[in-house]
Amino acid sequence: MSSIPRLLIAGTHSGVGKTTLSTAIMASLNKRGLNVQPFKVGPDYIDPGYHNAVTGRVCRNLDWWMLGEETLRELFIRSAADADISIIEGVMGLYDGIGATANSSSAHVAKILETPVILVLDARSMARSAAAVVLGYQQMDPAVNIRGVILNRVSSLRHYRILKEAIESNCRIPVVGYVYRQPDIQLPERHLGLLPTTEKSRLPEHLTAMQQAVEEGIDFAHLIALAGETVSLPKPGRRVFPDMPGERRVRLGLVQDRGFNFYYQDALDLLTAFGAELAPCSPLSGQGLPANLHGLYIGGGFPEMFLEELSRNTLFQKDLKAAVTSGMPVYAECGGLMYLTTSIVDFSNRKYPAAGLIDGCCRMGQKRAGLGYVTAKALDDNIICSRGVSLRGHEFHYSTLELGREYQRAYRLAKWGEQTAWQDGVITANILASYVHLHFAGCPDTAGRLIESCEKYKNSW
Question: Which CATH number describes the domain made up of 6-228?
Answer without folding.
Answer: 3.40.50.300
